[in-house]
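Batch manifest, entry 17 of 40.
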Amino acid sequence: MLTWLYLPFWRPEAIQIPLPETGVLPDALQIHPFGVMVALAVLVGAQVASHRARREQVHPRVMGEMVGFMFIAAFVLGHMLDAVFYHWDVVREDPLFVLELWNGLSSFGGFVGAFVGGAIWSVYRKMPLLPFADICAYSFPFGWIFGRLGCTIAHDHPGRVTEFPLAIEEYVIPGMRPPWQVRHDLGLYEAMWCAAMIPLFLWLGRKPRKRGFFMAILPLLYAPVRFGLDFLRATDVPGADPRPVLGLTPGHWGALVLLLTGLAVSYRVFFGGPVELPEAARWVPEGEVPEGEVPEGPSADDEPAPAARASSPEGEEEE
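Output type: structure tokens
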């Protein structure tokens, strides 16, 4: 086997920044690498979405407002659904655990939250959701890669024991004792998926596409991969994912729902009518004329430009 391709286990410690003694603040401010990567995911994803919005003639301020609604709802429901579906025993003992938003996130819970946040914004602003969700779908792999790299260095998605060449050797599992084994790391594999999707999306994004194109293809590209990866989740570790129905994890069922969503959106985009963007959300670069409008000519009140005169020899009169 290609054991020389095994990746080393590396889990960086939190950075400790000492704070002055106040009797109120903690002794040090902790900056966790995972939190840094999540922050990068948000910043990069938002920046790519803003750039794509301009290219699609969507006003970046409108796009930014919608993204704000999505991110807030994604973080809230991302934890709440993670608590309900993955840590129900903890919730039964301490129902307030669902409000500890810093204590665990679920990717599919975040997807549901993003949809709910976008839907609330759509109703609030009376805007169609699909044109804006399409831009978010385009920017997804650009931000998601940082989030999944954060999962990789945190090693919070341990997989089964394996001899796969790109697995992690000496995989340390909290609550277990050595000897440590070679395991799949599902966060790493999703980061690899993102690394493949980014150039593909850049290439596809070079040409004009129907509004909703990326919202249609993203679930079709992600859901089958995620469905397959969930079979690699570890079952021999403390806190292993529950498999209450047909031996499938909540992630399996989420992937199936996401796949059906992608098929429904694809039917709407490729077989339905064009998705219109409201005028209130349009953005036109300064100096350009909005599509469908005719540039205004000089008005009658405008002073005409001086006509060029032919020069004549000094002292001669013009006829």
